[in-house]
Amino acid sequence: MQIRRRSLILGSGAAGASALALAACGSGGSGSGGGASSSGDAVVFVNNTEPENPLIPTNTSELGGGDVLNACFSCLLAYAADGSSENEVAKSIESEDAQNWTITLEEGWKFSDGTPVTAKSFVDAWNFGALTTNAQRAQSFFEPIEGFADVSAKEPTAETMSGLAVVDDHTFTVRLNSPQSDFPSRLGYWAFAPLPESAFEDIEAFGELPVSNGPYKVESWTHDSEIVCVPNPEYTGPRPAKNAGITFVVYADEETAYNDLASGSLDVIGGIPSSALSTFEDELGERAINQPAAILQFITIPQYDPNFQGEAGALRRKAFSRAIDRAQICEAIFFGTRVPATDFTSTSIEGGGATDIPGSEVLQFDAAEAKSLWEQAEAISPFQGELTLSYNADGPNKDWVEAVCNSVTNSIGVTAVPTPYPAFGAYKEQIAAREITGPFRSSWVADYPSVFNFLFPLYASASADGNGSNDGQFKNEEFDRLLAEGQQATDPAEALAKWKDAQAVLMENLPSVPLWYQNTMGGHSEAVSDVKFSWNGGLLFPDIVKG
Amino acid sequence: MIWYIGRRLLQMIPVFLGATLLIYLLAFYAGGDPIQAIMGDKPLSPAVQEQLRAQYNLDKPVLVQWLIFIGNVVTGNLGVGFNGRPIVDQILAAFPVTIKLAIIAVIVETVLGITAGVLAGLKKGSIYDTGLLLVSLIVIAVPTFVIGFVAQFFLGVKFQIFPVNVGRDPSWFNLLLPGFVLGIVSFAYVLRLTRTSVAEVATADHVRTATAKGLSRGGVTMKHILRNSLIPVVTYIGADLGALMGGAIVTENIFNIRGIGSLLYDAIQKSESPMIVAIVTIMVMIFLVANLVVDLLYAALDPRIRYAK
């Protein structure tokens, strides 16, 4: 079934598939379409899910809306397919101390209504997104900026963040709460897009038909049906559209989109239904896409579970991890669309997917070693109750969870019991209340291409206690210190080295057990070429050529 | 008669209240926290969560939420859904599509089902009868979604007779295949019911008398056999409307029809109580009205039936 809501939900879990599903798209039967062909090339039909929120950059946290925003908005940076980024609206983003940043814009940028893109367009948009009373879904992205605490309180004491200052039309400064050497890497995320002044006058109208500064603009949005985007005539940036427009067709089910691709009425799909996982590469041949995305699946083992505390707990965590035959499950259940994890991040980002982190052998399958570790733990203090692995059953999780449980049972001789929760909402509620016991399924999609974005939200002390996604309540001073030191480093290589050390701490403590990296899958019809996904699973729309 | 209809309509009020409360409680307790479901793996800040809770009345006790909902129903304004669009607008956009789909399905099951059933019943034991029974057995045994996918693959992808997905253009033609898939299981039941009932009535005394009087074969079939056979069939069709609406969830997803079924499915995934309850309540109401119509049809079919005051 589908899952929409890649919102971050992702997951193979999550609510389903939504998550990853990056939406499907499709077009109606006839291939008629919004803009008809002009200038020789044709409109590209892409599958999508209905955006869950109005098309406001700071209020979107899932790919259904995110894909449209990616096509229509240009941020300071643009991400390329390989996870690197290049300046787009920004001329330069500079800092001496990783805490005080000066951002200079290229001149001549305009929104689709002809008004200029200025420093104020960015500052106003970010302040809008951060203010609690606007209840924007992406509020937490502005957290590093000084003054965020004032605008994000339940009763905000300020309307704007003190860390943002407009210097002139094309320059503004950002002061952060603390040094963050990877701060620029997040500036290509759609939540940091500029907004025109007209947006603030009537944000509801804007959400229906946004005025944007990117390669495309939204021409019409027929709810639950299609979103027609046409090339933005005001766009003069580095990634102009090579097609006559993108029409996002809303599909409820990926299966239908996949069939529509086969029937030729759809050009690109950004997701493969689970029923076709084993066959899509054969069926589509060179038109199949199967590449790493910044998505990691893992199992969190909460710190508050007495079975996994202390010396015996540490041994059990290792035993559990070594008992899982990741390679076999990736092959047998996911048909090679997932890759066994060797670290806590992702292969699709710089510095991620390292294979040489000290202690990383705990992620290698070794049934004998697992059994021996578990028995050592039993000698110290016996396991109480039942070994469970919890998951939400409304996502495509059942098969692999049962496979993991079987693998654990076979390796250590203790029965691991798959424990389903019927709905994702109820599942997350239990997790948030810290009432779930034993290991539970988790997943993470990076918001920006940085190792830090995998480590800090999931394992830093500052992200525990409901302030982030540290649902296992892992707290480790050395780890926190290494993360902070990496952020203070002005040399990117030094930062990566620090974060690698931080991962070594995780290997030793195993607050979670990484399982596998999830790939982005998709495909396209014979009518189009140059279909590429970015590091985060979003399509690079302007590059697609049709006809 | 008028009294009877009036009383039946009045009975719908408590059913409406009870059904909405029950569904509200179910959605509330089974779905978990909608805000958690909205967030996914990336948490929203507590302040924004609180803001959203207040906006959707999720911070109030479930009974208060239900009373607010009932109040909204009375004023005709159900508020705004989780996606920022008015719930009433979303339902109004989806409903005509599902109605069209249901009309096609009902035509398939009644017209085709009764015709085939009468023919099979009159020629009981013939090859024709056996063949129809076999076909209906297969159709009943295979789940709707399998029929849907198979039909979509062969008629849509392979032979390209019908569109694979209905999507943006829910025209009658585009809905033909999904409507057929939706109605086909009921078609098999209607066929079997009609066949049995026709076969039974065909041997009744009054039919023999009518034939002996020299009435034409067609006249006997229409006036004396069919009419007397229809009561169980009509009863079934009334009750089947509920199953059709449930089946619409599956069928609409397969063919990407943006109707009530897919709207309901989305809302359930998001634990969006007002939307779930509004849609299910409408379905309950349709069901009640359809069954009232069925009860009234009894009298038309069999004049011996009278309604109490």
From TrEMBL, chain A:
Transmembrane segments: none annotated. This is ABC transporter substrate-binding protein. It comes from Brachybacterium equifaecis. It holds the Pfam family SBP_bac_5. Residues 88-463 form the Solute-binding protein family domain. Residues 1-23 form the signal peptide. The lineage of its organism: Bacteria, Bacillati, Actinomycetota, Actinomycetes, Micrococcales. Keywords: Signal. It comes from the Bacteria. The keyword Signal applies.
From TrEMBL, chain B:
It comes from the Bacteria. The keyword Kinase does not apply. Residues 95-294 form the ABC transmembrane type-1 domain. Belongs to the binding-protein-dependent transport system permease family. Pfam families: BPD_transp_1. It comes from Brachybacterium equifaecis. It is a multi-pass membrane protein. The keyword Transmembrane helix applies. This is ABC transporter permease. Keywords: Cell membrane, Membrane, Transmembrane, Transmembrane helix, Transport. It is found in: Cell membrane. InterPro entries: MetI-like (IPR000515), MetI-like_sf (IPR035906). The chain crosses the membrane at residues 12-32, 62-82, 94-120, 132-155, 175-191, 233-255, 275-301.
